[in-house]
Amino acid sequence: MKNNLYVDIHVLQNVPPSCVNRDDTGSPKTAKYGGVVRARVSSQAWKHEMRKLFGEMLNKEEVGVRTKKVPQMITDTVKELDQSIGDEKAGKLALGALEKAGIKIDKDGTSPVLMFFSAAQAKALARLAIEECKDKKEYKNALNASPSMDMALFGRMVAADPSLNFDAAAQIAHAISTHAVHNEYDYFTAVDDLNQDEEAGAGHLGTVEFNSSTLYRYATVNAAELQKNLGDQTADAVKCFAEAFIKAMPTGKQNTFANRTLPDFVYIALRDDQPVNLAGAFEKPVSGTNGYMEESEGRFRKYAGEVYRKFACPPEKIWEFGEKDILQILEELKIAVGEKLSESGGE
What we know:
Layout: E1 6-18, E2 30-33, E3 36-41, H1 43-57, E4 65-67, H2 70-81, H3 87-100, E5 115-117, H4 119-130, H5 136-144, H6 149-154, E6 170-172, E7 175-177, E8 184-190, E9 204-222, H7 223-230, H8 234-247, H9 254-257, E10 265-271, H10 293-310, E11 317-320, H11 326-344
Antiparallel strand pairs: 1-9, 1-10, 2-3, 3-7, 4-5, 6-9, 7-9, 8-9, 10-11
């Protein structure tokens, strides 16, 4: 087997009137593709919801924390490890540990940028602080070891110190509609419940912009790269990532539209050559004469076949939702990834 192993996840999902991901003006995000405007949901929005799902699916030790309140996090960890240490001493130990690790802390007690820590990394720093270790290399090593599952998947970038970076093993595309969209406006009013009969008019007026769409969503995981940081946990991490990608959904304006849906079509491909985004199936927008989903699924299947025939080898294995339930598919995916990594001999 080649030293590559990619898991491509393709999803078609019908979303009713909604505004799940807004731009700086409050409008639903869009993108122009194939000469027409499409609905768009950013990859960042989906990653955020996936990380929230990780917190429910995994134990605390397997999920990282992204925060500017780094000193407080290390202070709390110091006190957790040694309950005899008071607040003031724990705070000083935490600041000393972060300084030795090369992490800058502003005067207000926060880092200038968001930092991504795993629970294991925070504990390792705290232990070194408690032991009053003087070796700066030990602190650096603590931050370069034991990444959380989401850190290994999504990566960590520390611009001030590239030695602390982790390369992301997963990539998520911006979701786009398979068809053209035109944003619409909902004019709404709010009534003042204590208005007197003679007081006409609403207590508040406003508009909210929305659209509805059939989205094509794509993500890929480099399982071989992931194995470098997670080792024996890799197959579990791939399964967790796939489940979170399939089930997660950004929650913008959720109370207004109650738009949460689940995918209508899921196609997972295991490849040993390269990841393949199949958005080209929708470069010509779906017409939607009788709805979008059926034609979108047909377009996807036809385009996938053409790509495999002309450019890329067919996947080593394919799973489709519908032939089997999603839990069975995810378990088979986990087993297949584990077997393929085992065949390659790992790292």
